[in-house]
């Protein structure tokens, strides 16, 4: 009986090592590809034929060492968008959910039904109307153009 448990444990360990290898393989491939020139990646794509003779850190030097590197600008934008969008969506969704849960008013069931209905619509379907809305509000190419369309999240209202 003890022998069966040991064999089972060894087989599970082997299985988990294989799963970890399959999971980490794309990340390792991307890390290795980042060391190659862009022209080579465009010509050959991501593949398992790694040529270490052309590998260098030039891409990282280019990314971080230029006087006005766009990377830090992109990183700051990502932080601002994430922080503002999370805070606003939590606040707004919590208020809407509180109103739906605690107050009785005419049309409450209809409002909650609309929340459920919007949850059933895939995001890809509403991308074009959201884009048109952002254009009509004249906030295209701004941080608010990215933040505002996704402030009120129906799944968050439902969970609250």
Question: What can you see in these coordinates?
Answer:
The chain is mainly alpha-helical and 160 residues long. It has 2 domains: 2-65, no CATH class; 70-159. The chain has helices at 2-33, 38-44, 58-65, 70-102, 108-119, 123-136, 143-147, 154-159.
Topology, element by element:
Layout: H1 2-33, H2 38-44, H3 58-65, H4 70-102, H5 108-119, H6 123-136, H7 143-147, H8 154-159
In angstroms, what is the radius of gyration? 25 Å
User: What share of residues is helical?
Assistant: over 70%
Count of separate DSSP helical elements: 8
Instruction: Return the structural class.
Output: mainly alpha
* N-to-C series of helices and strands: HHHHHHHH
Q: How much strand? A: under 5%
Distance between the termini: 49 Å
> What is the mean pLDDT?
88
Q: What is the makeup of the main sheet? A: none
Shape, principal axes of CA atoms: flat
Question: What descriptive keywords fit this protein?
Answer:
160 residues, mainly alpha, 8 helices, 0% strand
Describe this structure in a few short sentences:
With 160 residues, the chain is mainly alpha-helical. It has two domains: 2-65, no CATH class; 70-159.
